[in-house]
Design brief:
alpha/beta; about 40% helix; globular; single chain; 9 strands; three-stranded antiparallel sheet; about 270 residues
């Protein structure tokens, strides 16, 4: 059995349609029109332990929604998900012990506390052994060059510094699985490269299975050995990075979103 398995997973949302005009105020309030949005449609794939997988697609392709279902945050409308042999959205507490998650636009750091205090709080929440905690903090601070701001209040950190702390925080309890949703967006070149090197090194040392969403081809090229492309909520490509490059990345200057859009148009034709 694979470490992560998705079988015919779909996720639908009902969206309210607001009719314009003063004559529709009561109708919008009491009898609103709705439509169904298919965020994820019949997605199936499996991930083996130790894999480094790039999960890419246009904005709105369903990447974050799929990661949230795998994290246990969302329920699928249909289909089945197994992560480390359990259902993530039915056994959330147990699943949380097996995963580390970084959503680029969502911080788990306490803005009013120093980064060190946020790490201590995380240790209590996950009941991390003190010896393992001290070892990992020392190692992560060194690898991510966080010595100069480890005791700095989070609100005073730069975006790059905060993202380094977020990635380190996600791995403090040594989960076998790491989900990264746009972890390098908006970061400078140096911060991006340090985070990339850290992710690859954790995979080399601990065989941490990593699924990464990114629009930065350099992130994908440096970290990932396999690429899954989503478009309109469905899987269009699932194969090695080498096969992806040979098939689609014909122009190195092509923007990632334009590349995926071109793939989708080819599939429709």
């Amino acid at each position: 059995m694979s470490l992560i398995e998705l079988s015919h997973v779909s996720k639908d949302y009902k969206v309210t349609i607001t009719r314009p005009g003063p004559g529709n105020v009561l109708r919008n309030l009491y009898r609103p029109d709705t439509k169904t949005v298919h965020a994820v449609k019949d997605v199936s794939f499996s991930v083996e332990a130790g894999e480094l997988v790039g999960f890419i697609g246009e904005n709105g392709a369903g990447k974050s929604t799929t990661l949230k279902m795998m994290s246990g945050i969302l329920y699928p409308t249909s289909g089945d998900i197994q992560v480390s042999g359990i259902c993530p959205y039915r056994q959330r507490e147990k699943n949380a012990q097996n995963i580390g998650v970084v959503f680029g636009q969502r911080s788990r750091l306490n803005w009013d506390l120093p980064m060190a205090d946020s790490f201590d709080l995380y240790r209590e929440i996950y009941r991390i052994d003190s010896r393992i905690f001290r070892k990992n903090v020392a190692l992560f601070v060194e690898m991510l060059h966080m010595q100069d701001f480890y005791d700095t209040t989070v609100r005073q950190l730069s975006l790059g510094q905060r993202m380094k702390a977020e990635v380190a925080l996600a791995l403090l309890h040594e989960p076998p699985i790491l989900y990264l949703d746009e972890p390098t967006i908006g970061l400078d070149v140096m911060a991006k490269q340090q985070i990339r090197e850290f992710i690859v090194e954790r995979n080399r040392r601990e065989a941490t299975t990593t699924i990464l969403t990114s629009h930065d081809m350099k992130d994908l090229a440096y970290i990932c050995r396999r690429i899954i492309v989503l478009a309109k909520g469905s899987v269009l490509f699932d194969g090695s990075m080498e096969a992806f490059r040979q098939t689609y990345a014909k122009d190195d200057a092509m923007d990632m979103e334009d590349m995926v859009r071109e793939i989708y148009e080819e599939e429709k034709a």
